[in-house]
């Protein structure tokens, strides 16, 4: 099951909202192996991947970090910026060279506050991604650490 795409969210917004949001975008590039953020760090930005892949991981005490999901083009990297206390719930590292749009979280939150219609659309989109990623994390951790894996038992 694929997460809702960023392209889908941008298409779902009326053109004036989409233009306002993309006006805040800054094009960035990262080489392979760069840590974008660590679990527990301050979530002050987010990205929409244009090219490349980024692995989301979760700290597992006494073990190597578990990769929960690998994200690719048109996918959102980072949702913790939208919800207080604005700290990362997962970690992220580039697995290939990446080009992305980067957004300043404070500027986007202010825009959403000033325009409740835009804010609702962004919150619904990000909320859907959060739900998907929580299901992915559960399944991945069960596959890695449960005696019989996820086995489809939920």
From TrEMBL:
What InterPro entries does the record point to? cNMP-bd_dom, cNMP-bd_dom_sf, RmlC-like_jellyroll
Q: Which regions form coiled coils?
A: none
What Pfam families has UniProt attached to this entry?
cNMP_binding
Report the residue ranges that make up the Cyclic nucleotide-binding domain in this protein: 9-78
Q: Which SUPFAM superfamilies match?
A: cAMP-binding domain-like
Protein's name according to its UniProt entry: Cyclic nucleotide-binding domain-containing protein
Protein source organism: Streptomyces albiflavescens
User: What lineage is this protein's organism placed in?
Assistant: Bacteria, Bacillati, Actinomycetota, Actinomycetes, Kitasatosporales
